[in-house]
Here is the input.
Amino acid sequence: MTLHDRPQPGKYRLTIDDYVALAASGAFGDARTELIDGEVIVMAPEFRRHAFIRDDLAYRLRRALEDLGSDLYAASGSVLVDDHAMPQPDIVLTREPHGDGPIPLASVALVVEVSASTLADDLGRKLALYASAGIPEYWVADVEAKVIHQLWAPEGEAYAQRREVAFGARIEAVTVAGLVVEALQP
Here is the structure.
């Protein structure tokens, strides 16, 4: 190897293939990770408040979707957004919950993040990622403020429309006709 063959110092953006290969090799151990803008993000441990709200909301979404007879399913898993991003939202409403590999972006109708300690990232970097990917609707369950930030109408790296719905109130999806979720625990 010559001096010219070596990688130059600096920051490198991983591709999905790089990330998957590293994960398969055990490079991340048992840490939960996701790939955002080519960067591996190690996710914080999940504690009870976050888990309870995620599980409760996923259950309520599943029930509401079943009542509607919808072909959507409230799943969890990584979403293949582009060549450098594979986030792992808390809940994904998808038409393709089965199969191998990540959830295909084209099947995603709504994404939910539960934010106990990651609000700035969920309403910043992840919001920009989901909007630019064209995900029609995005909810952030803000554990501290006890509200759901509901965003829709993606335009570039933002959502043109938004509202806040308090825990304890009903929330109605804007982009999934007829989808209404009864009150979350305040």
